[in-house]
Structures are given as C-alpha cells and as structure tokens.
Amino acid sequence: MEEKEDQIQTKCRLPRSQKKKLKRLQKLERRRQRRPEIRWKKKEASRNEREALLSSMTEEEREEYIMNLRKTNYEKSVEISKFLDESHEKGMPICINCSFEDSMGPKEIRSLAKQISLCYNIMKKHMVPIKLILTSFSKESRLYKDCELFGVHKWKVHFEEKAFWDVFDPKNTVVLSPDAREYLEDVEEDKIYVIGGLVDTNVKKVSTRKFSINGAVSCLQPGRISWNHL
After folding, report:
1. DSSP per-residue string spanning the chain
2. Contact (CB, 8 A) for 192 and 162
3. Tell me: the pLDDT tens digits for 167-211?
4. Is the confidence at residue 151, as pLDDT, over 90?
5. Keywords assigned by UniProt (predicted)?
6. pLDDT at residue 216 above 90?
7. At 20, is the pLDDT very low, low, confident or very high (cuts 50, 70, 90)?
8. CB distance 138 to 161 below 8 Å
9. What is the CA 214 to chain-centroid distance, rounded?
10. Cα 136 to Cα 133: distance, rounded to the nearest angstrom
C-alpha cells in the first residue's frame, strides 16, 4: 500500500520549472485578491486624515479650505480637458491595431480592453501628448463591449472601423513588433506608430510582423525606446 502511495506521489511531482511557474501564479493570485482590501485601506486612511485636518480648523478655515480645494480641482479638470483636446488633434499619432479579436478568447479580449484603458489613463494622468487611434474597432465587437466597462464613450480617442493599412499612408507607417529584425532607435514626428492589440497567453510568433509584410510598411522592435522620447 505504501509503495503505491509513493508511486502516485512520484507521478504527481512537477518539474522544477513548472513548480516555479505555479508559485509565481499563486503569488499573483494572492496579490490580486488583496487589491480591494489595500485600496479600501488607502481610501479609509485618506478619509481619516482629511477628517482630522478639518476637525482641527475653525468653521471659517474649513469653508476657505473646501472652497480652495474645489477651485483647484476645477482648474485641474479644465487643464486636463484642454490637454486632451490638443492631443486629440495635434498629438503624436499612436495606433492600436484591434484586428486580432478572432485570435483571442473572452479573457484575453477583456485583458486587452483593460490595457487600452490603462494606456489612455496613463497618457491623461502624466499628460503625454499622444493622439491615440484605435483601428479595426467596431461598436459591434466584443472588444468595444468590454471597453464600455472602462468608460470608452468618454475617451477622447480616434475610432476607425477600417484596418490601419486602409487609413494611413504606408510610407509614413511603422509597425512595432517583437518579431521585427531591427530596433526602433528614434521617434519621428511625421510617422504613425502601430502597436498590435494582441494579448496572447500562448505566444503567437510573427502575428504582428505579418501586417508590415502584407501592408509593405516598416517594422521595428520597440525595445530600445521609452515614453520620454514622445
């Protein structure tokens, strides 16, 4: 009986690489489960700090503080709105090619929607002057429905149902792909840079590079460039 149990345990043992992967996934899952609690604690601490500050003030000081806070928030809102309008018209054109929906499952499409939302919010928060363009992006698509969860109807972004090669001049278009043979060394203002909107759990080689071959546009790896260049 003991010999059979030992044999079963031996068969169930995982290779070291799979053990590491399993531990990493378990760690990520524990971190994901703790996020709501961490966010709640931060909000609670911020609320308590504000209440303590207000309680230490006189009534006149509180009124002045609240008025100044509202004024600051309004001015910041106006500044961000103006920045988004200018970026929408004159920013560095960055295109996300959303034509890979058939190659992804529901979970991957949801992840892509979240990543696009993060791109937009980072651009907005840090005021990076980018004209964000989503191509092959239809309101009937699953991706659009998932983007609605992140407030896509409020985004100041260009939406195109056509593919990027039907929208942009190939001479001015650069496809960014991890499969490219050359690196992107510098950003040119007159170029349009295309990022593949593809979340793949299992890596699909040459998925993004094939569009540069089919569309006869430049293809470069983005590995040596940073947001500071934009």
Report:
1. -HHHHHHHHHHHPPPHHHHHHHHHHHHHHHHHHHHHHHHHHHHHHHHHHHHHHHHTS-HHHHHHHHHHHHHHHHHHHHHHHHHHHHHHHHSEEEEEE-TTGGGS-HHHHHHHHHHHHHHHHHHHHTT--EEEEEES--TTSHHHHHHHTTTGGG---EE-SS-HHHHS-GGGEEEE-TT-SSB-----TT-EEEEE----SS--TTTTHHHHHHHT-EEEB-TT--GGG-
2. no
3. 999 888 988 887 777 887 888 888 999 998 988 765 455 454 455
4. yes
5. Methyltransferase, S-adenosyl-L-methionine, Transferase
6. no
7. confident
8. yes
9. 26
10. 10
Domain 91-222 class, CATH top level:
alpha beta
- Return phi, psi of residue 198, to 5°: -135, 120
Put the strands of the sheet holding 158-159 in their side by side order.
158-159, 130-135, 92-97, 192-196, 173-176, 218-220
The CA radius of gyration of the chain, in Å to the nearest whole number, is 24
Cα separation values, 120 from 1, 117, 226, Å: 61, 5, 16
Q: Over the stretch 97-122, which tens digit does the pLDDT of each residue have?
A: 999 998 899 999 999 999 999 999 99
Is 223's pLDDT higher than 70? no
- Confirm if 105 and 67 have CB atoms less than 8 A apart: no
